[in-house]
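Hey, quick one: can you model this chain's 3D structure?
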Amino acid sequence: MKITILSIFPEMFAGFLDTSIIKKARLKGLVEYELVDIRSFSKDKHNRVDDYSFGGGAGMVFLYQPVVDALAFVKTPKSHVIMMAPAGYLFKQKRARELKEYEHLILICGHYEGFDERILQHVDEVLCIGDYVLTGGELAAMVVADAVTRLVDGVIAEDSPQEESFENGLLEYPQYTRPDTIDGFTVPEVLLSGHHEKIAQWRRKESLRKTWKYRPELLEKIDLDKKDRQYLEEIVLEEDKV
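Sure thing. Here's the predicted structure for all 242 residues.
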């Protein structure tokens, strides 16, 4: 897989590409990353990439020409082009799994007050990472690139993503490591029992508990079986007693 990022601040990605899982994926040759400076495609003598908005209003707008020329420089018939902007569809784990199937992703980092709307004629989709506005799309592009990269075969252990938050529609169950007792806090006894079936049951219930407490809206989007509903009833009673 190849991920190309179009930005006016490519230097922001130096630490991102040389750290942790992203660095490992790059060094293993599993994912190729390409940074392209949109400003280098400007035809303005001062390398400007923005201008005032027709109709007035605050802020500057990304020019069509440098963005589209930069895109044409890197795009191939197999490329899937994404504009990172707050007006896009909300990026979720399901979309990350879908995007990792593409051979080439191109992420355009939006900036300023916005971008010339005609740029979207060259874009396959618009994504955002949350209901808030960032200074630019660089951080959002890092989020998408990271989420997709770690799903590429061979980047991390094969079974690691399967039980992570959002993979099955729920938040992940609590995790513990050694020592089993510290500062008076102990690991739940069932996790030390070696009883795999009971551990699996505990993890499912605690996954439901965490989702119920922090992201209850997720429970409305998944199919809960009879046992799940029983767990939720127990959880409500248990939490009421706390």
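One thing worth noting: The two ends are 49 Å apart (CA to CA).
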